[in-house]
Every structure is written in C-alpha cells, then in structure tokens.
TrEMBL record, chains A, B, C, D:
<dbReference type="InterPro" id="IPR015422">
    <property type="entry name" value="PyrdxlP-dep_Trfase_small"/>
</dbReference>
<dbReference type="InterPro" id="IPR001597">
    <property type="entry name" value="ArAA_b-elim_lyase/Thr_aldolase"/>
</dbReference>
<keyword id="KW-0663">Pyridoxal phosphate</keyword>
<dbReference type="InterPro" id="IPR015424">
    <property type="entry name" value="PyrdxlP-dep_Trfase"/>
</dbReference>
<dbReference type="GO" id="GO:0006520">
    <property type="term" value="P:amino acid metabolic process"/>
</dbReference>
<comment type="subunit">
    <text>Homotetramer.</text>
</comment>
<comment type="similarity">
    <text>Belongs to the threonine aldolase family.</text>
</comment>
<dbReference type="InterPro" id="IPR015421">
    <property type="entry name" value="PyrdxlP-dep_Trfase_major"/>
</dbReference>
<dbReference type="Pfam" id="PF01212">
    <property type="entry name" value="Beta_elim_lyase"/>
</dbReference>
<protein>
    <submittedName>
        <fullName>Low specificity L-threonine aldolase</fullName>
    </submittedName>
</protein>
<feature type="domain" description="Aromatic amino acid beta-eliminating lyase/threonine aldolase">
    <location>
        <begin position="3"/>
        <end position="287"/>
    </location>
</feature>
<dbReference type="GO" id="GO:0016829">
    <property type="term" value="F:lyase activity"/>
</dbReference>
Amino acid sequence: MRFFSDNAAPVHPKIMQAIADANSVDTAYDGDALSQRLDAAFSELFEHDVAVIWISTGTAANCLALTSLVQPHQGVVCHREAHIEVDECGAPGFYTSGAKLMLVDGEGAKITPETVGDLISTIRPDVHQVQAAAVSITNATEYGLVYRPEEVAALGDICDERKLGLHMDGARFGNAVATLGCTPADVTSRAGVDVLSFGFVKNGGMNAEALVYFDPAMADEARYRRKRAGHLLSKGRFLAAQLLAFIDQDLWLDNARAANAAAQIIAEAAPERLLHPVEANEIFIRLSASEAATLRSLGFDFYDWGEGSARLVTSWHHREEDVQPLANAIAAL
Amino acid sequence: MRFFSDNAAPVHPKIMQAIADANSVDTAYDGDALSQRLDAAFSELFEHDVAVIWISTGTAANCLALTSLVQPHQGVVCHREAHIEVDECGAPGFYTSGAKLMLVDGEGAKITPETVGDLISTIRPDVHQVQAAAVSITNATEYGLVYRPEEVAALGDICDERKLGLHMDGARFGNAVATLGCTPADVTSRAGVDVLSFGFVKNGGMNAEALVYFDPAMADEARYRRKRAGHLLSKGRFLAAQLLAFIDQDLWLDNARAANAAAQIIAEAAPERLLHPVEANEIFIRLSASEAATLRSLGFDFYDWGEGSARLVTSWHHREEDVQPLANAIAAL
Amino acid sequence: MRFFSDNAAPVHPKIMQAIADANSVDTAYDGDALSQRLDAAFSELFEHDVAVIWISTGTAANCLALTSLVQPHQGVVCHREAHIEVDECGAPGFYTSGAKLMLVDGEGAKITPETVGDLISTIRPDVHQVQAAAVSITNATEYGLVYRPEEVAALGDICDERKLGLHMDGARFGNAVATLGCTPADVTSRAGVDVLSFGFVKNGGMNAEALVYFDPAMADEARYRRKRAGHLLSKGRFLAAQLLAFIDQDLWLDNARAANAAAQIIAEAAPERLLHPVEANEIFIRLSASEAATLRSLGFDFYDWGEGSARLVTSWHHREEDVQPLANAIAAL
Amino acid sequence: MRFFSDNAAPVHPKIMQAIADANSVDTAYDGDALSQRLDAAFSELFEHDVAVIWISTGTAANCLALTSLVQPHQGVVCHREAHIEVDECGAPGFYTSGAKLMLVDGEGAKITPETVGDLISTIRPDVHQVQAAAVSITNATEYGLVYRPEEVAALGDICDERKLGLHMDGARFGNAVATLGCTPADVTSRAGVDVLSFGFVKNGGMNAEALVYFDPAMADEARYRRKRAGHLLSKGRFLAAQLLAFIDQDLWLDNARAANAAAQIIAEAAPERLLHPVEANEIFIRLSASEAATLRSLGFDFYDWGEGSARLVTSWHHREEDVQPLANAIAAL
C-alpha cells in the first residue's frame, strides 16, 4: 500500500464519471457551459463574489496567484519550507519575472504576524533592497498543520496594515477545512485572503485546481497570464467538470475527511514518534533506516524525510482496512 | 453540426478508455510506468532515438521547444500568421524571457528558405539588432497547407548553414502526415527538424501533446523548464496513456485521415470558393455575410475569417453523413 | 568631418565643466545635492510637476518608461522603424519581461491616430491575443521628422480614449523643440504624454538622459526598476550635473538649434536628393555608391542607408564652416 | 570627513584627466580606439587572453556575469550577505530571468568548498528543485576580508568537479590584490575564476567597471546582453579611457593601497572593537549609539551597521592626516 504521496492516488470514481460525462462537443477553452458555471458555483461555496480559474497544477495556480500580487521587483514572504520555495523549480521566479521569495522560519512550516513583521523590519525601505508586496501561506502546511481562521485573520491584518497581498496555497485546503470544521469562507475571504489556490488533484482529482480570486476584477489579468503560460487548455470543459463534481454535495470535504481519518489511525499508533501534530493527511515520524526497511519489506511505501525521519501521506482512497495494517506495523516496530 | 474548431471536438473513445485504464495508483509526475514507456514508443515511431515530454497544450509545447533553441536575446523566424505570433498571447515572449519573433510572409502561411534568407539578410550582424537563432514552421500550416519532406529539408539545410535551430509546430501534424503519406521521420528528423510539437488534442485527445526532441540530450533541460512552467502534472500517467493509445495501431493517423476526408468533401462542394488548397482539415472559403447567415440558420457553426471569408474545420468525429449536408448547403448557396 | 552620428560627437565644454565641478565628495547614488535638484528644475522647464530620473542611455530610458506603462502580457504600439524595435537588441522585451511591440507603418516613421486605431481594431479582445496598453512615438522621428503639438495631442486623445499610456522617445527631443518653437510642455504634458525619454547624449552630453514622468507617483516604482537594471550609478552626481547644466540657460536648445541649422545647410544644397523633409538634424538623401565613394574620398563620413541612400547627421559642434564644404560637395556631385 | 562609503569618494584627478582627454570625435559605442585597446591591455595585466566589457555599475557587471554562467532555471551559490543578494534590488533575478540565489553562511561573508558542498548536498537532483550552476564570491568580501589565491583555487576545484561556473565580484578587487601582494592572475584565472567584475568606481573611477572574461568566447553573448540591458553607452570611449588610465602605471593598485593603509590606521586605533579582521578598506567596529553620536559630533560620517556596530570605509583620497583624527577620536572614546 502506498503512502508516498496523495499525488499518486487514483482519481475518484465520481470525478472519472464527470470527465466521461463532459465528453461532448462544446466551445473550446473556457467558453463551454461547464466553465461558465464555475464563478457562480464557487461564489456560493465561499459566500462571496469570486472569480475562478481552472488550472492543471498547483505550481501554476500558486505562481499565477503571485503574479497578481507582486511586481517583478518586489518580494513574497513565505516559509523557508514552503512548496513555492522548495519544490517548484523556481517557478515563482519564472512567473513573476524574478520577484524574490523572502523566507521566514516557524514551527511546522507556519508563519505568524511576528515572523512576517520581523522579516520586514530588516528590509531597508530604499531601492537597494527588494520590498515585500505579498505573503504566501500554505494551509494545511507542508508539515500537515492547519492555520485556524483567527491565525489567518491575524496575518490578514498585518497584510492590510502593510499593504501586502495575501495568498493561500491550498494544495490540501480540503484537508484543512475538514479538520477545522469551519466554512471555506471563514479561513479565506473573511480572514483577508486575496487569492486561494484550491487544490483538488491531491484530493481525488485528475488535473484540475481552482484558482479562486476574492476580488473578481483581479482575475481578468490572470486569465491573460494563464493563456500566456500555456495553461488555457482547449478542452477546458474536462477541468471544469472536475471542479463542479467536487463541490457538488461536498465530495471535496468527504474525500478530505477520509484522508484525515486515515492519517489519525496512523498517528494514534505511534504518538511518541510524531515530529509534528497530525492535523491533516500527512504524518511525519521518527523512523530509523532499519525501521524504514522493515516497513518497506512489509509492502508499505513512503518518503524518507532526511535522516531518521519519514513522511507518510494518506489519501481519499485509504479506507480503515488499508491503513490499519500500517498502523499496526509501526506500533510493532 | 460544429465546424468551428477541432479543439472543440470530443475525445476519441479509445483515448477515454486509455484514461480510464490509467486510473490506478502509480508514482507521481512522470515517474509512472506509462510515462517511462514514451521514449521507446516514439523512438520506434520516428525510427530515431528521441526523448518525449508530455505537456497539456500546444502553446506550452511550442514555447518550451523555443526555449531549447534560443537565448533571451535572440530571435525566432516564423510566419506572420503563425500561431506562436498571433494566438498565444505572447507566450513565446514569456517562456523565452523576451526573445523576438521575426516575421516573414508567404502564401498559405508557409515560409521558404528564400524568405528566411531574405529576412536574415536585413539584420545587421551587430549587437544593436536581435540575431536569429531558430526557425519555427507549422505543419500543417495555419491555412491548412502541408510542407512536403523536401520543403522541410530545404529549410533544414538553410538552418544548418546559418546555425539556426528548426522547430515544427505540429498541432495538426497527424493531418499533415496523413496527407503526405510519408513516414513521420521523413518530414521531421530526416529533414533537419530539431524539436516537434506533436499535437494530439485537436486530433481526438483530451489534454496531452508530445514534445519530441530528436536530440534527447536537449530534453534534459526542457524537463526543468516544464516543471518551472507549472506543466509537470502530478498524475502524468493520464497524459502518457493518451499518447501511447494514440500511437498504438496508428489511431493518430486514422483520426487525421477521417478529418482530412471530411474536409475534402466540403472542398469538393465549392472549389471556386476556396481561398487556399485544402491539404489537411481546414477549409477557408469566400463567404458573404448573408451566405454565412444562411449556413448558420441551417445549424452549421464556423469561424468568420475577416470580412467575406470563413474558416471551417473538420475533425476526427465528422463522418461522411455529418459533412455531406454542409457540403450540399454550400453548393446550394 | 564626421556626419556619421550625433552619438559620436564630442561632449560640450560646458558639460565637461559641469562634470569637473561635480567632483567633490557627496552622498552616493541619487542622494546628492545635484540629483535632488532635478525634480524642481525640470518641473520649472515643463511648467508641470514632474519627477525626473537620470539614466545613462536612451535604450534604458525608453525601456524603463515602457515598464511603467505595460504589464508583461501586454503590448506597445510603435512604428516599424522605431528605435525600440530596430536598434535596441530586444531591450524592450527584456525590460518588460516579454511585452510585445506592435508595429504600424507610416511615412517618415510617424504614426497617427488612424494607424494606431487600425492596428488595435485587428486585435481580438480575447486572451489569445496580446492587448495594447501603450503607444510609443519618437520625436524627432528616426527619419528626422517632427511631431507638432497638435499631432501629439491627437495621439494623446486616442490613448486616453482607449486607456493606453503614451511614451515619447525624445532621443532628439531638443532638435524637435528647436524646430517647433513651442515650449517643451506643448508637445508633451499638454499633449497627453505620460513619460518622456529626454535625450541629452546626442545633444552634447556624456552619459546622462532624463526620464521625465509627468505623473511623479509613477516614478517611484521606476526608481526600483532602475536599480534592478543596474542603472543606479553610485556617483550619480555626475549625471545630475550634466542635466542641470543643459537646462541652465537653455544650453540644450542652443545645441539643438546649431545642429538643426547645420542640417538645413546640407538640405538646401540638394533639395532634389532628399528622401524626407529635413526637420531636425538628420538628412536622408539619394546617393549612389559612386557618389558616396566620392564624398568619402573628400573626407566626409556618413552612414549608408540601404542601397542608393545615405544618412547624414549633424551635431551641436558642426559650425557653418564645417558643414558648407559637405554641402558644396553634394551640390557638385 | 566622510567614511560613509568609497562610492561617495571623488574621482581621481588622473581619471578626470583621462576623461577630458577622451573628448574628441570618435566612433560611437565601443567601436572607438580606446575601447578597442581594452582586451589587449587587460590580457597583459592578467597574463591571459581575456575579453573585457566596460560597464557603468557593479550591479550590472555582476548580473551580466551571472547570465553567462546560469540558465533561468538554475541557481547561483553565494553568501547570505553577498551584495547580489542583499543590495541589488533583485537585479540578478531580473538579469537571469529568475535564476535563484542559493545562500550559504560563513564568517566574514566568506564561503568555502565545504559550505558550497553542504548546500549542494541538500538539493535533490530532480526537476522539482533548482540545481546550482555557478558560485559567486566577493573579493574583498562585504566584511572587508580577502580570499587568498589558495582559497579561491579550492573553490575553483569544487566548481570544476561539479561543473559550476565561478564568478568573482571584485567591487573592491584592487583592495584585495593590494593586500595579497599577488598578481591579479593568481587570485582569478589561475584559481579557476571564469568571470571577474573588476571594480574601479569605488577605487577612484567615475562610471566604469570592467567585466573580465577569462574565456573570451563567453564575452560574445555578453555583449548582446549588455546592449539589451541598455548598458552600451554611445560614448563608451569615456569609460574605456578610465579603465586604461587605471591600469596604466598601476593607478588602481596605488589607490587601493592608499585606502587600505588608511583603514589600517583606524584598525590599529581600536583593535578591541573590531568585528572582523581589517584586510581591505572596510572597518567594522563595535560602537554604541552614544559613541556614534560623539564621533558624528566631531564631524565624522559613517554607516550604522545594525545596533551597536558601525561600518567605516576608507577610500583612495584619505591621506594619513585625514584619517588620524578619526583614529584618535575612536581611541579616545
């Protein structure tokens, strides 16, 4: 059983069905009937007038979002272990034509108004230094922690105060909301988020993420940038179909809950091994090389996280009976 | 019946099946078993050692290709009506960090060694002017004409002579090869093409194009650029599955032949209206506004091509019985 | 005697003196006393509140100006023979991160509201095509013609109407104003120009051009971009000194008048050879290869302008007695 | 007396004279007789066949150098306090179209083969992470320390081994060589440096730095990039004149020695206050706010370096009698 990444999980059957159902002739690009329904559907979900752009990857979603918030000569404050810094091959530099990522530290890959403020206070306000224009946070974080609405709101406040845009990388946004039990709006628009990369691929989708602009006007330029980045698929109806299927009857939440529940089963099996609280669908544990080898010999696959640690990721398709054997195996180490 | 664009056509059932079959757990990105088979499969098709990168759009394929051939301070010679110049929202400028498209004219959107040579002869070889480093041609062209192997080879020769890379935008490569009756290699690797954007989406695919590098080493850097452009999908297996299904038993050729045959039916109905020879699946005809209205009132959809002209595009799913009514209606105007 | 380019002319003695006088210790970059005087001095000259940025080259001035007016995915309308298109090695693409130059034709390298309007009418207002966001004109033009205030104002009107920024490349702005006999404001701020590259180097300067922003707020971001482009010289006082010396007692106008007068002497010697009216300091004449050889054998240097034509450029240092021999020689051909 | 920055110092009289002497008509750009002498003159100085490009600022020199060594999707290893990271407003990101600066720590802003190796070992060799392609060091460093030839050579070795280019930011190269007593070649070409930004402006120049390519072929592309960045001044002879005057009779070394000697006088006055060894012309000292106020009240100007510290910079024009009063004042605190 694979716990390597939720990226590797299968596509949910309802999503496959939605894709199959979308296979008829329709206008190309995003002029089709399904794409045209997105703004309304997501506006309802977020209880806010939003504009939504489908896009194939989280990297592209994040980077398009950043181009809406910073000019090439400006900077984006993010965590030192943020996906945009560590795992996107410099894509933010490409999309923003060279804007700078400005790194802060923080437990569990979380940043706070204090760390943001401290970083900015080190920047001389002159033309020799890049000035920050945005903050990007990841919810759930790269270590599987969740920002609560009030934590996001506190960041939203400092962004307002210092005229910084606020982006949320929600590659695992569903997992965060499932844990929080709040509404999607509570942790985004109501908390000052300007743009959300709302991830679906890790949550059972095939190739569709939603870039959600809480100021619809901002999306107008982003649509040009999406085209310019080669991300305006000609058969966009297949992406729109996925997004609509996900928010229909809360499939996105159900899938996220399933993944989170699976993670808890593992977490409970080895509380003393946990490197971070398990608040979403990622479990980081202490694991020696020989213990890792033992687990692998039993058929479990996962990611080594530096020396002596491992990352296990659950996904929507992990049922209790899939996960329990791993939990047992870890407990038995 | 829609003749608006092959972009709007449905996905071929075999491709839908291949996508469905790919829906199992596998390694993310392009580490999966299907993606790993691409180089070998396409090397066989092209009778040449090639490296293949899947990518979701033709725009991204074209632009990635160009970044392999030019530096930001250099230029790409292409036709004034080339897709990269006219219809990609400046994507080449984005991908290449500002390289210049250098435009030549030519009947039917075709360029020749003469037009390339003439253009280059107007460039002063000093640092004040952008120097050309590549040529990009489209086969079949934006007006549905086809470059024959010897025409491409003549361009390949001038490229060799002047140390220019040669890119082929093959958004309708299948249609071209179907018409030519040659092998894929005859009109690419044997003719001096360095990189081919091999299009499948207009030919019945969902979201997978193949970027074919005839020098596999060149693909190594392109893989970084694909990631950096947000085009490394995490579930790449669904793209690889499409490409493999297309070249299995020549589905790509069968589809292209069907589209071409449908185009011929229309072309034969109105030879005196044709603005360009019909060599692939696009038909450009003289059509007055009132004639266009008549056709539309009969349920036919198509693209106005400036005043007094129209573009009709056939696709793999247009059977004779779908097309004949349009042919009749045009003949009856 | 050289009539090759005003770029090659010596620096005016008053400018050399101003440079020598600036050689004392002062704050680096543009914090020095001289740089700090620029805004006020130019605001007086332009009878308008302006912000002025010194910069070493016209290419950098033009490109910085464009970055203030267009986003990377947008376009700039300019003449097909504009310096930014032809002679800056793609610098606009570099500075704007890939914005597109959109070319129009027009006698004497001039553009009109009609040609701008015609070009824009060919652009589909959708994301597949680059949308224009600015117009750039050159005054005096690359062929030595001068835009009159009402011509600029007409362009300013269409720019207002279509929400386009208006940039003026004034590499030979002094020559234009000297010919027009208007105030600098008449042909810029009062006519709708947003940013002016005010050239001094061709007019007797060493390495200082003034980028004049008629909306001072716009200059704030440009200052970051100047630094980012490596154009914030640490001893900026030497550039500021030149600019101040130029506008003190109208040295810039005197120099331009001298150059223009010299040009008229040549023009009058060969009215039938003129390819363009001579309105500034450039003379384009019909000249066969053997005639060119004759002039060169007499010690006159100039630029061949394609086959059968030549460009002669006068400069501030050409006195009547320097130019008359050339005029005589041409008349005697 | 100002010890704020060597950037603020006057231009040396011999340089002013060379500039004055260059004020005659000559070909524009770098076609003039002085510019044409640079390669030979610097090849003699470096005992190596080099190509030299004049350029107006250190920022532009550094960034042009980096574009010769890295592609947009690659990275440059440098010190966390390197000028390119801290003080150039993101210029490297602009020039390289988004390449990443990869930061290492190290006493006195020095980096070592170990810190480079350690950093690279943390990079996964896959497309998700930016791969390093170059190392940039500053000699003398931002803290006034000097890399010895064997230290540079050790870095050169690891660069060779890992196929990384090696750039030296020599904004204060003269000060480093003056301290080392070695030849310029010992600490550059013989030690594996590929490109050197050889600074003259901080050492008594006006606006000319030399970008020295130890592989002349590499300079060919850089010349296009210089033009494209708006750095090809039309009256380049004034820059070439400065560079030639500097290396004539070792003016650059004399000036650097004078600055270094002045720094030693201050250093010796307060050995217990030194935060770093004084090996060039910068002195970093512990200095409380009230002590700083005292010095300023005595007429000495300098830069606060965070809380409780100050940076003092000497320059070529500081004679013993200019510096001794400051040394005395510090000793008397």
